[in-house]
Amino acid sequence: MAEAKPKLLIVEDDLDLADMLTAYFRIEGYEVITANRGEEAIRAYQTSHPALVILDMSLPDIDGDEVARRLRGNRRTAYIPIMFITDKRERLDRLHGLEMGVDGYITKPFDIQELRLRVRNILRRASQDTLTNPVTGLPDGTLVDEHLNESLLKPEWTMLIVSLENLDAFRDIYGFGASDDVLRAVSLMLQNAIRENGSPEDFFGHLDPVNFVLVTEQERAANLQERIRSRLEPSLEFFYPIKDRKKSGRQSKRLVFKIGVLLSSDGPFTSLEVLKGSLLRKK
Q: What percent of the chain stands above pLDDT 70?
């Protein structure tokens, strides 16, 4: 079977430039989808799921910043690589893009060979990162699926799902950098709790960006639950600025966490998809 071509989404309102880039990258062996407006780009991503978005910052409807913000704000598209094409050279513009987590810049007028190399390098880094979460460094994707499949072959196991809820609402108010800081801190607290009350045989990773899964033994599950709860419950409020703390009565979408437990005896679990669905229903 032939290897699938990497898919690029090029978002550029200059039709001549969009046509040139499309023709060039197709010759280079890429599958290319184009969009000329920001809203069109968001729809195109949802239907085509590209490996990389090459995004002009200046678009006729919504600008590239807004497109990137929406992609980064959706858990299904949060970690897609984005490269900005920009006319701007100011340091603050670049810092703003870095805060949103864009993976690269190239400034017009650019050398097409330089763009090709930057695209290649971003895709290479992305392929190396698919086994770990880019924010926490914990196992993700294929690594987690492999371990869950191995668990399905065992007669007994216990899984804890720890969910961090309302992170999207927190990100909308305080920004991408602050929400990533929350995710990193929560993952470290969870890892410390597991280190103190778990076992080297326990497995811990991401079910998705805001849902963590811990595979352990039933005799350790209760202690782990209690340790996780004691670490996280008093900590979430401190991620907010002082002026915004203790507003739970006025802000319904505060950061909260939930813990659920799934036992092998709750099955049967006929597939990985059934197992994951059962885990998510336990939170």
A: 89
DSSP 46-64: HHH--SEEEEES--SSS-H
The pLDDT of residue 96 is above 90: no
Residue 134 lies in a domain: no
Query: What is the helix (H) or strand (E) element at residue 220, kind and residue range?
Result: helix 218-232
pLDDT for res 1 = 36
Q: 20: closest CA among 85, 81, 67?
A: 85
Classify 209 as helix, strand or coil.
coil
Tell me the CATH number at 156: 3.30.70.270
Number of domain units in the chain: 2
Packing angle, helices 218-232 and 176-197, rounded to 10: 140
For the entire predicted model, the pTM comes to 0.60
Region of 246 on the Ramachandran plot (φ > 0 left; ψ -120 to 50 alpha; else beta): left
